């Protein structure tokens, strides 16, 4: 999972204070439920992303907890009104504690 490069799309990287920005993210992950069996009949262990967060300069913007019903390669779309310029930090954490992180910079004028 260390090679995973999430895809992040902001509808714009410069926004006026009080305007809304659209954020879209997609990360590659198998999201194995723990309910399937392999060819030999052994249960494939659960391996899902269980937490997603987005922060702007360390302040929480959006987050959610995921369950095994979420499909592979989870996609999130949300809107928010940034109050300051800075770095958006996106973090996905899976059952093994593996962290997938990405950042984007935005400017508020």
Topology of this structure?
Layout (H helix, E strand, L loop, with lengths): L6 E4 L3 E2 L5 E6 L22 E8 L2 E7 L9 E6 L5 E9 L4 E10 L1
Parallel strand pairs: 2-8
Antiparallel strand pairs: 1-3, 3-6, 4-5, 4-7, 7-8
Rg, rounded, reads 16 Å
Overall pLDDT score: 93
Contiguous runs where pLDDT drops below 50 for at least 5 residues: none
The N- to C-terminal Cα distance equals 37 Å
Q: How many beta strands in the DSSP annotation?
A: 8
Tell me the strand percentage band. over 45%
What is the succession of H and E elements? Answer: EEEEEEEE
Assign the structural class, choosing from mainly alpha, mainly beta, alpha/beta, alpha+beta, or little secondary structure.
mainly beta
Helix proportion: under 10%
Sheet with the most strands: spatial strand order: 2-8-7-4-5
How does the overall form come out from the CA principal axes?
Answer: elongated
Oligomer: single chain
Give a quick account of the main beta sheet: strands, pairing sense, barrel closure.
Answer: 5 strands, mixed
Number of helical elements: 0
Structure description:
The chain is mostly beta strands and 109 residues long. 0% of the residues lie in helices and 48% in strands. It is built from no helices and eight strands. Strands 2-8-7-4-5 form a five-stranded mixed sheet, with no helix packed on it. The protein has a three-stranded antiparallel sheet with strand order 1-3-6, with no helix packed on it. The chain is elongated and about 60 Å long. It starts with 6 loop residues before the first strand and ends with a strand. The mean pLDDT is 93.
């Amino acid at each position: 999972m260390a090679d995973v490069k999430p895809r992040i799309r902001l509808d714009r990287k410069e926004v006026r204070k009080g305007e809304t920005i659209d954020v879209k993210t997609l990360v590659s992950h198998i999201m194995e439920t723990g309910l399937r069996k392999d060819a030999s009949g052994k249960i494939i262990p659960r391996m899902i992303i269980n937490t997603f967060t987005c922060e702007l300069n360390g302040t929480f913007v959006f987050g959610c907890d995921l369950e095994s019903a979420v499909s592979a390669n989870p996609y999130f779309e949300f809107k928010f009104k940034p109050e300051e310029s800075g770095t958006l930090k996106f973090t996905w954490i899976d059952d093994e504690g593996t962290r997938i992180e990405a950042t984007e910079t935005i400017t508020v004028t």
